[in-house]
Amino acid sequence: MSYKPSKRQQDTYAEQQLAQYLDYSFYGKILEKYDEISWQRIKDRQEQLQGIDGYLTVSGTKYVIDEKAALHYINENIHTFAFEVDSIQRGRLVDGWFINDSAKTTHYLLVWPNATTTDLQQIRYNHFFRTLCFLLPKKSIVDHLNKNGLTKEKLKSDALNFRKKQCAGKIETVESKAAGGYYYLSNDLNERPMNIVINRSVLDNLSVITFRTAFLRG
Q1: Hey, which bits of the chain come out as E strands?
Q2: Which ranges of the chain does DSSP label H, i.e. alpha helix?
Q3: Residues of the chain with pLDDT > 90: what percent?
Q4: Is 155 in a helix, a strand, or coil?
Q5: Coil/strand/helix, residue 136
Q6: pLDDT digit string, tens, across residues 67-89
Q7: How far is CA 215 from the centre of its chain?
Q8: Where are the domains of the chain?
Q9: Is 187 helix (H, G, I), strand (E, B) or coil?
């Protein structure tokens, strides 16, 4: 099988551009809307690899924010979000960002973006003009999956089992359907990521802030 090349470099660039947009259109706006809130963007790569894109402090409580965006689905208004369970890195199977115990993340900012271009190699912060953002505690997602039988151990064992069976694409189980989602294994990518995909309506119910941006920055 021929694999598509890794998209991590272009993804990182596009994430940096989106971060500039969010600093104004999301964080800037909630700072105006709510009292006793501050935002600190983290640019150190090592901290980012630990799931820290920034610190949102609310009434003295500091939340560790990891921004995740559906950048490969710009303008498509998809009604799901994918959480990485595992992937192949340098020939080894490693835990994905969602179940990585070393991550410091307390909250995810999930972003469904719209932009004037979908070319992630050329996109700039001022190409984004509208996003849907959910801010939600990581614990809320974990608890929701646990309640439906999808513990970390179950996610890992299911993922390994699907790989052994050489599954590909969308995979449904009793537990994933109960949780409002399904597994998805992308065998056409170098990293062959396995995700647990959750419906947006479920995530909306778990979010503490749902915010729509509508701003084109010049």
Answers
A1: 37-41, 54-58, 61-69, 80-89, 92-95, 107-115, 128-137, 169-171, 181-185, 194-199, 209-214
A2: 8-22, 28-33, 45-49, 138-147, 152-164, 174-178, 200-206
A3: 83
A4: helix
A5: strand
A6: 999 999 999 999 999 999 999 99
A7: 22
A8: 8-214
A9: coil
